[in-house]
Amino acid sequence: MRAPLTIASCCAALVASLLVAGCPGHPPPAAPSARAIATEPETALPAPLASGRLPPLATPLGYAIDLDVDPDKPRFAGVVRVEIDVPQRTSFIVLHGRALDVTTARALLPPPLPGVLATVSTRTAEGGKAPEELVLAFPQPLPAGRALLVLEYTAPFDDTLSGLYRLKDGGSSYAFTQFEPTDARRAFPCFDEPSFKVPFDLTVTVPRAMIAVANAPETAREQVGDKTRFRFARTQPLPTYLVALAVGDLEIKEATRFTKPPIRLVTTKGKSGMGDLALEATSGIVDALAGWFGIPYPYDKLDIVAVPDFRSGAMENAGLMTFREERLLLDPARASVGARRSQALIVAHELAHQWFGDLVTASWWNDLWLNEGMATWMEARIVEKWRPAYGAGLDAIVAAHDVMDLDGLVSARAVRQPVVSVGDAQEAFDGITYDKGAALLATIERWIGEDAFQRGVRDYLRTNAFKSVQSDRLLEALDRASGKNVTQMASSYLDKPGVPDVGARFECERGGRWHMELSSQPWRPLGSKLPEESDRTWTIPVCVRAQGEKKDTCTELVAGAPSLVAGQGRCPAYVHPNWSSSYYRFSLSEKDFVRLAESKKELDPAMRVSVLSNAWAAVRSGALEPKAMLRILPAFDDDDTRQVVEEVVSILGAMSETIVDDAARPAFRAFSLARLAKRKKALGWAPAPAKDAAPGKDKAAAKDTASTRDAAPGKDKAAAKARDTSADDALIRGSVMRAMGDVAEDDATLREAEEVAARWLADPASVDADSGAVALDLASRRAGEPRLAALVAAMKAAKNREDRIVALRALAGFDDEARLKQALDVTLGEDVRANEMRYVLAAAFGRRTSRPIAEAWVRARWDELRRKLPGRLGAALVRAAGVGCSSADADARATFYTPRVAGIEGAARGLAGALEAVSLCAALREQGSPSLKKALLGTKKK
Predict the structure, then answer these.
(1) Band of the pLDDT at 36, cuts 50, 70, 90?
(2) Are 230 and 206 in contact (CB under 8 A)?
(3) Cβ distance 597 to 634 under 8 Å?
(4) Residue 21: strand, helix, or coil
(5) Edge to edge, what strands does the sheet with 172-178 contain?
(6) Distance CA 588, CA 571 (A)
(7) Greatest C-alpha distance within the chain
(8) Exposed (0-12), middle (13-18) or buried (19+): which is 258, by Cβ within 10 Å?
(9) Which residues contact 315 (CB under 8 A, 6 or more apart)?
(10) Which of 119, 132, 291, 838 is deepest in the core (most CB within 10 A)?
């Protein structure tokens, strides 16, 4: 790493009187001298660039930022000093600033030149929707070389949970930041692009009763009147989007550790006691990551901050990671398996970013996949090692299958999609970036081998530490480590959207040989407007495995050319076309799909998941008749692997929503009941009590089980297996019970749910947390107004965020139209935070019966919802546009949502995908519903 050129060193080169005034921690400099300098002709102001980037008039070398932050007031103030390098004389400097009131701006120059005042204006970047470029115009051109920009300003706290924003919690005021991707400019004038990676000196002045924390360790605090000034150490080089701070009556709890880095939990007042599980997870996972990367944690400290109102799930700010409060603060005595598992994954994800994204940063947002894809890939890898009970490795394979649905849309973006606006940058945070990026990295690792992959990653990190680089640097490192052309292979997936569909035709030959003919084309769902003559081709590493074989037979499909793999020995009953779980779908005949399903005991869990996922994908592409699912799904009735059960449940739900008409619904309910009832009976509504518990100590035993069920497997393999089974059972129970209520519409299940819900409403701690969440939701289906009042009361009285969210989700559980709309109206009031709307809307749009009611409510309440969800928070409403399954629905949604979503930054592609989903559903229903109906009504044996 190069020694950074600091603000202080720049000051030392300036006139002494200006130097002292311009250095961090001193008052702003006085107005520059009026002494004239030689008159030179002005240079032209470049127009906004089509690339969306700033014109190359100056490069930042370091920042000193002095902020005065009082969350009890509507505005904050700051002085920013930016050392810059000016490549050639210029009359203008253009940087970023949004909604900032800049009172003075000046440039301090090396002697004998005087300081120069600037005139400040703003303009809108190419493709932008708001003025975000801050233009400094100087009366005389600045010479080439070093200069120090000094800008004084005030600004409002943001009201969209972006930039520097404030919130109330427990009657106290707090301020937090969220800068990714392009919101540092809402907090201070800056060159807000990830390629500009420089050190920061930060000073924050706050009311005396408050404290401040930031990326780097605190170095000093001093009383200044009725305020306290906090100074922080200079950071390592950072892009602006990773700068962070928090202000308020914060609590800090330190983890017990004997190795670096020191780890602290930061919460709002009175909540640090709920953070022990988060501290434990952070401590264990950061050490595991340092071991895998072969590089110690790169920063001087590690704070995890629980934020009550937070737009994202979490943010990887260097040394000060911020999380939505419910992700960190869990009751260790009764936290659900689902919450514990989610916590481990999100902590692992953000910690992985401390290396991938923070230590080495993507130089522009088109390479965001490298940060997020690697963090998503790594979260599964590390959690699988740290807590095998959570099944994170297999869940990652499920996620790869799921994101193929998004990747198969006409509206899908490429992983390395060009980014030329703020909206483009915001749209990059989607499943393509995260899950397809992770799936591609997993595919590369399996192709070149784990050792070569790890060597390449370590080489990339060491070579590019504290730099911003393009993703090609990683691919080239993998080329060197493996001796394969990873760059070429990866580019075929990165630079174009789409999913390869490998057609596989298996035949046996005389003499005991078999062969499988392989070909590839883009996967297209029925109704897709993808062009038939597409040039989308890939380099696809394909590995197949025949029945009874212990090794794969592998080949590569290149540029759309077909291939053939062959084997010897007896003719196998099946050949699985994707044994390595690489990123592609496969298509088989119905006979071969059924053979694979019937041979499930010979397939590992990942292969069983892939059979189910690919069969349903083949139905949706028209390659397989829907009736085939009536043969394939029953083959998995006795499969106990959680992810397999969840895949069955997911397919049943998707079939129910898309291709089951009213006449066939009773028969489909019976078919679904046959798949689920036996599982429900075996699982029951609650975990079995701990064996050998002393009489009267069941509760204590259950609590002990809850607090230790995440323990890493030790020497007792039987105990470890029991813990794994218990964790999976909790998640399977939730999936099965929900499907019994919503797909099978089983009266007994709904009655039982009501009994469990009544106990939960009386005392949430009296019910298993995982079971209680499902029961409370299902119990709303047929409930009346008293239940609505009880849920609102439970939401308000909840003692922890997990219980509150359970009650919030249950608000969306009513089947009655009037009751559901009444419940949704509750969310518009002050009792529900803006960032909590996600839970209610997701629940409402997650069920067949509530989706059209919720969509009608969104249309009726659009203006109120936009006031509740201003700015980009309104992107959550785009999901409503995807409700429907007919051409008329598609037209109606487009008419209503298109003009209204146009003003929401980063929502255009999401809207296009939602509208496309309605059209695809209509096409699938039109082709698939008649044949499924005939098969269901003609099926006597269920």
Answers:
(1) very low
(2) yes
(3) no
(4) helix
(5) 163-169, 172-178, 245-248, 211-214
(6) 17
(7) 98
(8) exposed
(9) 178, 180, 244, 321, 322, 323, 350
(10) 132
Q: What is the pLDDT of residues 766-782, one digit of tens each?
A: 999 999 999 999 999 99
Spatial contact of 490 and 442, defined as CB atoms under 8 Å apart: no
- Cα 284 from chain centre: 22
End-to-end CA distance of the chain: 67
Cα separation, 662 vs 379, whole angstroms: 43
Rounded to whole angstroms, the Cα distance separating 267 from 589 reads 56
Residue 862 backbone class (left: φ over 0; alpha: ψ -120 to 50; beta: rest)? alpha
Tokens of 816: 């009655």
| CA atoms of 362 and 368, how far apart (whole Å) | 6
Residue type (1 letter), 864: E
Most confident of 169-173, 547-551, 557-561: 169-173
Q: Pull the structure tokens for residue 697.
A: 């100590």
Mean pLDDT of the chain: 91
Which tens digits make up the pLDDT trace of 459-515?
Answer: 999 999 999 999 999 999 999 999 999 999 999 999 999 999 999 998 888 777 888
What is the model's pLDDT at position 389? 92
Structure tokens that stand for 651 in this block: 């397919």
CB atoms under 10 Å from CB of 533, counted, come to 4
DSSP string, 233-251: PPPSSB-GGG--EEEES-E
Q: How far apart are CA 909 and CA 921, in angstroms?
A: 18
Query: Which active-site residues does the annotation give?
Result: 350
Spell out the alpha helix ranges (H) of 170-238: none
Residues 6+ apart with CB under 8 A from 227: 68, 205, 206, 207, 208
Tens digits of residue pLDDT in 417-444: 999 999 999 999 999 999 999 999 999 9
> Is pLDDT of 920 > 70?
yes
Phi, psi of 50 (to 5 degrees): -65, -25
Calculate ∠ Cα 217-365-300, nearest 5°: 15
Q: Distance between CA 359 and CA 242 in Å, rounded?
A: 11
Sheet with 585-587: strands ordered across: 563-567, 514-522, 500-508, 585-587
Using the predicted structure, report yes or no on whether residue 355 has a pLDDT greater than 80: yes
| Distance (Å) of CA 900 to CA 391, 558, 791, 884 | 41, 44, 32, 18
Token pair 């075929």 in the structure block, residue:
492
Sign of CA dihedral 734, 737, 741, 744: positive
Where do the H-state alpha helices sit in 483-635? 486-494, 590-598, 605-621, 629-632
Whether residue 717 is predicted with pLDDT greater than 60 in this model: the reply is no
* C-alpha to C-alpha distance for 656 and 662, rounded to whole angstroms: 10
Tally of CB atoms within 10 A around 468: 18
Report the alpha-carbon distance of residue 478 to residue 440 in Å, rounded.
13
Band of the pLDDT at 11, cuts 50, 70, 90? very low
Given a contact cutoff of 8 angstroms between Cβ atoms, the answer to whether 362 and 195 are in contact is no
CA distance readout (Å), 40 to 36, 140, 141, 739: 11, 7, 7, 76
90 forms beta bridges with: 142
How far, in Å, CA of 314 to CA of 345, rounded? 11
Distance (Å, whole) CA 470 – CA 459: 15
Q: Is the pLDDT of residue 741 over 60?
A: yes
Q: Which of 281, 445, 463 is nearest to 377 (CA)?
A: 445
Say if residues 779 and 750 touch (Cβ distance below 8 Å): yes
Q: What is the arrangement of strands in the sheet containing 90-96, beginning at the earlier edge strand? A: 90-96, 131-142, 119-124
Q: Residue 534 — very low, low, confident or very high, per pLDDT cuts 50/70/90? A: low
164 is written with which tokens?
A: 């520097």
